[in-house]
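thread: overnight batch results

M.L. [08:02]
morning all. the overnight job finished for the chain we discussed friday. pasting input first so we're all looking at the same thing
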Amino acid sequence: METFGYFGALAMGLSLGLIGGGGSILTVPILVYLFSVDAVLATAYSLFIVGLTSLVGSVSHISQGNVHWRTAIVFGIPSIISVYLTRLFIVPLIPQNIAQFGSFAVTKPLLMLIVFAVLMVFASYSMIRECKNCKEVSDTPIRYNYPLILLEGLVVGMITGFVGAGGGFLIIPALVLLAKLPMKKAVGTSLVIIAFKSLIGFMGDLKGSETINWDFLIFFSAVAVVGILLGSILSKKVSNDKLKPAFGYFVLVMGIYIISKELFFHHA
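M.L. [08:03]
and the structure it wrote out:
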């Protein structure tokens, strides 16, 4: 199972390198189902892995001038504050046993997995459908809707903090629609935002009671980084338009599988 897990880490990095996002949505299921990591701890590990791989992936975008720094700051600061506070205060406050319905117990790990799986279904939809606005490359000056961008940053930060996913599928459309960024700049800016908010969010866990297995975490991250470097090379030869919907369907199946397994076959 661990061998499959490391192949999964490689695939996660590959998808980030190839399509600029989406790969982080696989990190928590890989950790939970292939490495038997507790769901709460898996969301913490995921923040570190996603942050590090996104940081590596953003380097080429920075060198190509695909990062709009003003947008990264306006969106990123509320997002970073939100994810850090969520990991430091909100996640530890959630009780281990939330509710009991007959023989079915709603636990903290179960809640996190279900919220995560629902997020996967939404993420898959944004990958499968064609984003018409995303194809428009505009040379007009970038116009800001500051209140909406700040609010989106706070909300995405809270979601990232709770489930440990980077949230690229939420950030990229927001940057295209609210900040009017061209698609390439939206992807590059998104990776920078994801990198910083995920790594700073992970620092909120270091003050908690979770025991971090650093050897495992660094090795897993290294495999994912190899994947993102390979993906960046392959992205110059492979069509993004064909890959993204196919990956979206895979994420959709995974999301439905997690919901079914945790709700209907949890005690099987």
